[in-house]
Design a protein that fits this description.
The complex is a heterodimer of chains A (352) and B (312). Chain A is built from eleven helices and no strands. Chain A has 352 residues and is an all-alpha fold. Classes of the chains: A mainly alpha (352), B mainly alpha (312).
Chain lengths: 352, 312
């Protein structure tokens, strides 16, 4: 029918402006969101800091004991030396027992031998800008290094989870049938076990360490992405553009990952950033319980677990430092995610 | 209805088999050797071998899987590797403590969040609406650990309003003395995000045509809100409560660890630290069962709340 009609020529059709793509439109919406931009800038600053700590330019010596144990922050002032007098020094004459002391003849020899070793008393700071922990390590350096660990775990875990979820979701949604049934079964198995229990079970098996925590979280967290990607692929796989691609001989793999994937990637990006926040929180809890990062690493979780016993003694600065770093990063990241979601997927606005 | 229930229960079997297989394979092929953990560092190889015999770890894997399946069906999980307590006994003694903490949390959380959410959604865009959003974003940005640490320090250690931690044998004493602080802390963190979620459900319903119709008929706002909107919004809210129900049984394990509450969550952590496989396996499999049963229950409840829902 349309063959007999002359094609409708839009005014100025020769160089009609292309309608803007999904990414460009999203960027335009995102730029209008002032809060989102600020949040992105804060996240950017954190990422820069992480690059600096990871490359060793900053906070390389976080394990060095640079100050007195539990040295307070500078603005509080140095701790008063009350503790020194806690045990009264005994008064009265010192009895000479060298006649009966069996070790007396060797004291001189030992003193000479000890003199051969030089001990250098490193000067230790009395205060630090953010205080020191119970070993005298700089809390600021620890917090920066801990940020690197915690955020790295969150990002790596979320990336792996997204990869698993996307590939399985694409396969399940595109092919359906036996493959789809099998994946649905796998999904129902994983979702019928409460997350935290699954995480703990995996934690027993994989042991501690930064990468193993990320893998554990990824193995537990892929289900949400799988579900959503699968739904999107089911929707898209029967659309005209995919059928056209099939008609010109595009393979199944090409249709899935070259044609459909770019059209659902905004959904994946939003899910990814939601996972980052969730995983950072899980890492903190796992590390607190001693199932997270190794003993040689520092993360927000290990800092908090040290801070609990310090707080009772009145050393609040490590708790405040770890909490402040975490609060700023997570708030900024959540706001950025909100802004991204509003920009990329306006339909989802206000949900979750 | 009966046919529906039977079919749903039947469909649970493959999932449950999957859960059992997953847990079994994980611990059998990837986990450490429980005999070595039990024997300790100074054990001779003969001792380790003897423990392996005793635990039945030397039989072929299919025999072990068979025993595993049998133990699920007969509800007899044997004994904990570490304490020799029967797993059944662990469930029976730890579950009440968990429920004593978690049920008040669930009840108060829902009772507080529902009216606030309704009110906030009704006055959409107002200052209180924005405040809830901001509070929930900020409240969620700090790890729950921090709230517990600070809460215990201020309310229990400094002010002495509550005991720092502890538990007793009497339910009444637990509820009055030991439960309030953890419950308050959870509510402090949890109510705002919950309100935020319920608010979207109410907003969804408020936008529907039937609300306009009801108002046009001259119904009072009270009738519109409580008779029409609330009932319709109950469906997503029920789903949400249903989803959070299985979590009750592990409890918020963080709370149990911090407040020394002898519940199931703390037991899981202990079992994890001791590589106590029978306990972890049993808890995982039973929680999976409970989760599926609760999902079924929620679906049936839909039918009661909303007669239009067809169970299929």
């Amino acid at each position: 029918m349309s063959a007999v009609l002359p094609p409708i020529v839009a005014p100025g059709a020769g160089n009609a402006p292309r309608s803007e793509g999904v990414w460009r439109a999203a960027w335009r919406r995102l730029r209008a969101d002032r809060l989102g931009i600020v949040a992105m800038a804060v996240v950017g600053v954190f990422l820069l800091m992480i690059v600096l700590t990871a490359s060793g330019l900053v906070a390389r010596g976080w394990q060095k004991e640079v100050a007195l144990p539990s040295a307070p922050p500078t603005f509080v002032g140095a701790a008063s030396a009350v503790a020194a007098d806690a045990i009264a020094t005994p008064t009265g004459p010192i009895a000479d027992i060298s006649a009966v002391d069996p070790l007396a003849p060797r004291y001189k020899e030992w003193a000479e031998r000890a003199a051969q070793y030089k001990t250098v008393e490193t000067p230790r700071a009395e205060t630090l800008p953010f205080g020191a922990d119970r070993l005298g390590r700089d809390v600021l350096a620890k917090a920066m290094k801990g940020t690197q660990t915690s955020v790295f775990v969150g990002l790596l875990g979320a990336l792996v989870a997204t990869l698993i979820g996307t590939v399985l979701g694409a396969l399940g949604g595109f092919f359906g049938g036996k493959v789809g049934d099998f994946l649905e079964w796998l999904y129902s198995v994983f979702t019928s076990i409460p997350d935290i229990l699954l995480i703990l079970s995996f934690a027993v098996i994989f042991g501690r360490g930064i990468v193993s925590v990320a893998i554990i979280l990824a193995l537990v967290g892929w289900t949400g992405i799988y579900r959503q990607v699968r739904a999107e692929f089911i929707k898209h796989s029967t659309r005209d553009y995919v059928r056209s691609a099939e008609a010109i001989g595009a393979s199944a793999g090409a249709r899935m990952f070259r044609h459909i994937l770019p059209n659902v990637s905004h959904v994946i990006l939003v899910r990814l950033s939601l996972l980052v926040v969730a995983f950072i929180k899980f890492e903190v809890i796992l590390s607190y319980l001693g199932l997270g990062v190794g003993v040689d690493d520092v993360s927000w979780g290990t800092m908090l677990s040290e801070a609990q016993s310090e707080l009772i003694l009145g050393y609040w600065w490590q708790l405040v430092a770890a909490t402040a770093f975490m609060a700023v990063f997570v708030t900024a990241f959540s706001l950025m995610t909100d802004a991204l979601r509003d920009a990329l997927d306006p339909k989802l606005r206000g949900l979750e | 209805m009966a046919a529906y229930l039977i079919r749903r229960l039947w469909q649970m079997i493959p999932t449950l088999v999957g859960v059992v297989l997953l847990v079994f394979l994980l611990f059998k092929f990837f986990g450490g050797d429980p005999a070595e953990i039990l024997a300790g560092l100074n054990a001779t190889p003969e001792q380790v071998q003897a423990i392996r015999d005793q635990l039945g770890l030397n039989s072929p894997w299919y025999v072990q899987l068979w025993i595993n399946l049998k133990s699920i069906v007969t509800f007899d999980w044997g004994r904990s590797f570490a304490t020799n307590e029967t797993v059944a006994n662990i469930f029976a003694t730890r579950l009440p403590a968990t429920l004593t903490v978690m049920i008040p949390i669930l009840v108060f959380d829902t009772l507080l969040a529902l009216p606030i959410a309704m009110w906030v959604a009704y006055r959409r865009g107002s200052l209180s609406d924005r405040a809830i959003m901001v509070i929930s974003t900020v409240a969620l940005s700090v790890s729950f650990l921090v709230y517990i640490i600070i809460g215990q320090y201020i309310f229990a250690f400094q002010l002495g309003w509550f005991p720092v931690q502890g538990w007793s044998d009497s339910v009444a004493k637990n509820l009055v003395t030991y439960v309030p602080l953890p419950v308050l802390l959870v509510l402090f963190v949890g109510v705002a995000p919950q309100t935020r979620l319920y608010r979207t459900f109410f907003l969804d319903e408020l936008g529907h045509d039937y609300v306009r119709t009801a108002r046009a008929k001259g119904m009072t706002e009270k009738t519109v809100l409580f008779k029409h909107v609330l009932r319709n919004a109950m469906i997503p809210i029920l789903t949400n409560i249903g989803l959070s129900l299985p979590g009750i049984f592990v409890g918020s394990f963080l709370i149990e660890v911090f407040f020394s509450i002898p519940g199931l969550g703390r037991e899981v952590i202990l079992a994890v630290n001791r590589s106590d496989y029978p306990v972890i396996q049993a808890i995982t499999v039973y929680l999976a069962m409970i989760t599926m049963l609760i999902n079924l229950l929620v679906d049936v409840l839909y039918k009661l709340v909303d007669p239009r829902v067809v169970l299929k």
